[in-house]
Specification:
The complex is a heterodimer. By secondary structure, chain A is mainly α. Chain A contains eight helices and no strands. Chain B has nine helices and no strands. Helix content of chain B is 73%, strand content 0%. Classes of the chains: A mainly alpha, B mainly alpha. At the A-B interface, helix 2 and helix 5 of A face helix 2, helix 3, helix 4 and helix 6 of B.
């Protein structure tokens, strides 16, 4: 047993003060490490950070090769598009003759999308859509004609089996 | 560990850019990962956003004017990427704000890289319902242990405003955890300018 304090009668364990500083430093380091390791339930896969730089380099290379154009940009098309936009702005609106989005047929929109050669990903396209103008009801309430569905299935499935593959498994 | 100014100089030099970028990733990957993870919650999503963040940093490093510290600028990109990711997710899955909150919590509970106990899950449930800015400030203060000065530079908000946000966040979380009230959901997710 250690020394007894002169007046109070309190005692400390034998050798308590000999290594107090070391123990305090150890304790501080432990608390710091515990805090660092304890991520409130969140964790990462084993070795995640060790391999991140390599995976990142790979992803960057993939992205760079994906955006490279196979054909040079045709500047005359860009000039023509710019001229068309200018015309639309400068020519006064003729009221009844102006074409609106609703006047376009589904077929012409689908044809445009199929032939369009933009580099935008589906995410970027989604970002470009003005969210305020779209409501979930617009999609849910859109009614498809039986003929349209039949045409879609006719043109977009390679074999009838594909329709049932999930239940076959 | 390279000094920020040295690293920046190497990043701007084509000859040393690749090596410097790798060094930058090694230095900041953990801090940025945890910052992103606490916003998007799920590991796979955090990994995706972190990589996009670094790619954006790499692409835009020449545009970094040095008006703030490099790490503040990177944190800002990470924050914006995370918020944009959530916005995109809610849009693509046609989720309203409250539905997105439920989705994120369910996603977290199902995440194999989350093994928090019920209290930790409840804390995340409470945080996810906070207004966006309060949630960010709470995360950065409570989980990431950043100083108000640092948060102020990242979010470009006054220290006083941040203290008020943190105080409000703590009060709301306390109330939520005591079952007294359900915090008011954030009306919209907006990236920081």
């Amino acid at each position: 047993m250690g020394k007894t304090s002169k007046d109070s009668g309190f005692k400390t364990p034998e050798g308590y003060f000999d290594h107090l500083q070391d123990r305090s430093l150890d304790h501080t380091a432990q608390v710091r490490n515990r805090r660092k390791d304890h991520r409130h339930g969140f964790r990462v896969p084993e070795g995640y950070f060790e391999g991140l730089a390599d995976r990142l380099q790979e992803r960057r290379k993939n992205k760079e090769s994906k955006v490279r154009r196979l054909r040079p940009v045709n500047l005359s098309w860009i000039a023509a598009a710019a001229a068309a936009v200018l015309l639309l702005i400068l020519v006064p609106d003729r009221g009844e003759n102006s074409i609106e989005f609703k006047d376009l047929t589904g077929e012409s929109i689908a044809e445009y999308l199929q032939t369009w050669e933009g580099d935008l990903s589906s995410d970027e396209l989604a970002d470009a859509l003005p969210l305020n103008d779209i409501a979930l009801e617009d999609i849910l309430d859109a009614s498809l004609q039986t003929q349209q569905i039949a045409d879609y299935l006719e043109n977009n499935t390679e074999a009838d089996d594909e329709l049932y593959w999930e239940s076959d498994e | 560990m390279a000094e920020e100014s040295d690293l920046l100089r190497q990043l701007r030099d084509v000859a040393s850019r690749e090596a410097a970028f790798r060094e930058l990733v090694m230095q900041y990957q953990e801090r940025l990962y945890w910052h992103i993870r606490h916003i998007v919650l799920n590991h796979e999503d955090a990994d995706d956003v972190l990589q996009e963040t670094f790619i954006k940093i790499f692409k835009n490093i020449d545009g970094f004017k040095g008006e703030s510290k490099l790490y503040s600028w990177m944190y800002r990109i990470a924050t914006n990427e995370s918020l944009s990711f959530l916005k995109r997710k809610s849009r693509m899955q046609a989720l309203g704000n409250e539905q997105l909150q439920s989705f994120l919590v369910d996603n977290l509970a199902a995440d194999p890289y989350f093994d928090g106990d019920q209290a930790e899950l409840e804390l995340q449930k409470a945080l996810i319902t906070l207004p966006e800015k309060q949630r960010l400030v709470f995360n950065m203060k409570y989980f990431e242990d950043l100083k108000y000065d640092e948060i102020s530079e990242i979010l470009e908000t006054s220290v006083g405003g941040l203290k008020a946000s943190y105080h409000l966040a703590v009060k709301k979380v306390e109330k939520y955890l005591k079952g007294e009230t359900s915090p008011v959901p954030d009306p919209e997710i907006k990236p920081f300018k």
